Amino acid sequence: MHICFASHNENKVKEMNAIMPKGISIIGLKELGITEEIAETGKTLEENSRIKASHVYERKGMPVFADDSGLLVKALKGEPGVYSARYAGPERDDNKNMDLLLGRLTDHIDRSAEFQTVITFINQHGDTKQFKGVVEGTITTNKKGRNGFGYDPIFQPLNQTQTFAEMSNEIKNRISHRAKAVQKLLEYLHQHHG
Q1: Catalytic positions
Q2: Contact 145, 153 (CB under 8 A)
Q3: Cβ 79 vs Cβ 41: under 8 Å
Q4: For residue range 14-64, what is the model confidence (pLDDT) as tens digits?
Q5: pLDDT (tens digit, 9 = 90+) per residue, 168-177?
Q6: What CATH number does the domain containing 114 carry?
Q7: How many domains does one find in the chain?
């Protein structure tokens, strides 16, 4: 069974294929010839992931899921949230985003934060389901580690001694917000397509 993952991010597509059960293969937007940027005009992660999934479903009519992830920092009232990828500007520069966030947290004692992923899945009949994964943690004072992407070098999950960027992909894929949302999606797929 082919399911489109509505993402231009090759890293994410690879990450998803690595955890899918046998018989389900994930294809990214590039393979479907969808090259345009899908405008994320929603005010919430839920809205943005629905917008992206619907965009593909309307064009291709195939099963699709889209995710939207955000880092929500308590001291910054939930920033960067839906703007996580573009926090420091439209060029989506991970380092600039992290530097801006670390700068804004300089005077804050509370560095608690959570990563959220919301996945919207639309099946071949157009039925829509949403799944949410959350990981709580803290923002470190400096970048650590070379793995991962986004804010991984400055996010340390609760009860862990390493940032996401210091962890092996194997460990991160077990405990991450995306992994939790994907797990819910997989359970749903097993029940309805197994």
Answers
A1: 68
A2: yes
A3: no
A4: 878 887 877 888 999 999 999 988 888 999 999 999 999 999 999 999 999
A5: 988 998 899 9
A6: 3.90.950.10
A7: 1
